[in-house]
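Following up on my earlier thread - several people asked me to post the actual chain instead of describing it. Fair enough. Here it is, all 171 residues.
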Amino acid sequence: RQYVERATACIDAAEKHVTLFTMIITQDGSTAKLIDALCAAAKRGVSVRVAADIFTLGVMSAETAGLPWRNRGIRSARHMRNRLKKSGVKFSWIGQLGPVIYAQRTHVKWLIVDQDVFCFGGVNLYKNGLQHIDYMLRMHDPQLGEDLETEHTRIHRADRTGNDEGKQSKR
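Reply from S.P.:
Thanks for posting it. Predicted structure:
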């Protein structure tokens, strides 16, 4: 939870760019301020990129009842994606076209805000994921931030969807 508070404060102060890469993210009571901060940053002209594993939808489906098109967790994740995009955030699901459900998975978790880099362990950005105790490192390292930005772009280009961040699928 402290991670979300600290990350949100940094995003609120961002001047140039924000890049978030996580396995699982959705908007709920525990992440609402973080999502608000990402949207606000994009609206004020900060370049904001968010990528998450498509596996988010599977986790949300398992944790909330209902068929996929009526499932509260899946609807929440899709609503979050639509809200982010409408605010100007470049959002993408990674791993949509693996040959089996666990192919093309990513467990990468980082947040880059201007020249600050956060790396976090097993914490996922949703209510149950934030209940776990794990580590979060924060460093002020312009070179590491630049290297991770390059890696972020490389992962997008390698993703089997064939989409770059400017041309996302409707999923």
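The chain is about 40% helix and 20% strand. That should answer part of your original question.
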